[in-house]
Design goal:
The complex is a heterodimer of chains A (151) and B (97). Chain A has helices spanning 18-31, 39-49, 114-124, 127-135, 139-150; strands spanning 9-13, 53-55, 60-62, 65-67, 75-88, 96-107. With 151 residues, chain A is an alpha/beta fold. Chain A has one domain (6-150): Mannitol-specific EII, Chain A. In chain A, strands 1, 2, 3, 4, 5 and 6 form a 6-stranded mixed β-sheet that branches. In chain A, strand 2 (53-55) and strand 3 (60-62) form a beta hairpin. Chain A is globular and about 35 Å long. Chain B has one domain (2-95): Response regulator (Rossmann fold, 3-Layer(aba) Sandwich). Chain B is built from 4 helices and 4 strands. A 4-stranded parallel β-sheet of chain B has the order 2-1-3-4. In chain B, helix 1 links the parallel strand 1 (2-9) and strand 2 (33-40). The two termini of chain B are 14 Å apart. The chains are: A alpha/beta (151), B alpha/beta (97). The A-B interface holds A 46, 49-52, 54-57, 63, 65-68, 89-93, 105, 107, 110-111, 114, 117-118, 120-121, 124-126 and B 10-12, 14-16, 18-19, 22-23, 39, 41-42, 59-62, 73, 75, 78-81, 83.
């Protein structure tokens, strides 16, 4: 079973702020039974205290997540936002990032999901991968790109 | 190979710190260091450090308090934009110990 599932690719998410984006994208993880009801409030709370925005070379992204107790099955939801949404920067919360892509993760046990984490990190450090994902013009294109780079 | 213990700190204490820990192990091995990485959230840094023996703290989320152990800002490793800088910062600290 690969890291990327078709039901966890979301294209054209409408959101005005980070919380709305997290709710819209997280809805898919809840629908698929990957996470418990406690997951969304936990992710939103965590994001407010320890933001997950990252400024890559060309665009901004965010990787909202929480681990363990709120997760039923490990999963990653890749989402393209309809327009950039402001997230705090992971290393410095006072800095803001305009995120276009969201990599929302449900991690049960990081040691067992090291492959997924390594793949996501390799996307961040790969200009071509970032380009393909941010240029995706449809759900299918986003799915194909995510599958190619995250597996 | 020289054994070193590094504390990796991120908001959740698991995900981003696991990513950084993995990269650090891989890269520092090439410089002769065998890294034992421990992950922590900013609130559990103190209790994690009480185990002793840590050479440096790799921070993904900011760690504001001074624990008397050298800190390295490791966010650049996640984005890849400052990976070499992060490794150089770590080596400067480890080589001096």
């Amino acid at each position: 079973m690969g890291n990327i599932r078709e039901d966890l690719i979301v294209f054209g998410v409408k959101a005005e702020n980070a919380e709305e984006a997290i709710r819209a994208v997280g809805a898919n993880l809840i629908k698929g039974g990957y996470v418990k009801d406690s997951y969304l409030p936990a992710v939103i709370e965590r994001e407010a205290e320890y933001p997950t925005g990252l400024q890559l070379r060309t665009i901004g992204v965010a990787m909202p997540h929480t681990a363990g107790v709120h997760v039923n099955m490990p999963a990653i939801c890749v989402a393209k936002l309809e327009k950039p949404v402001e997230f705090g920067h992971m290393g410095d919360p006072d800095t803001k990032v305009q995120a276009e892509l969201l990599f929302m993760m449900a991690i049960k046990n990081p040691d067992e999901q090291l492959d997924m984490l390594k793949k996501v990190m390799s996307v961040f450090t790969n200009d071509e991968a970032v380009e393909k994902l941010s240029a995706a013009a449809s759900q299918d294109a986003l799915y194909e790109a995510a599958k190619a780079y995250i597996g | 190979m020289k054994n070193v213990k590094i504390l990796c700190v991120c908001g959740s204490g698991t995900v981003s710190s696991a990513m950084v820990a993995n990269k650090l192990k891989e890269k520092l091995a090439k410089h002769g260091y065998s890294v034992n990485a421990v992950e922590a959230s900013p609130t559990s840094v103190e209790s994690s450090l009480s185990a002793g023996g840590f050479s440096l703290i790799a921070c993904v989320s900011p760690v504001y308090k001074d624990y008397g152990i050298p800190k390295v800002n490791a966010v650049g490793m996640l984005t890849g934009l400052a990976e070499k800088q992060v490794i150089d910062d770590c080596l400067k600290i480890l080589d001096a110990q």
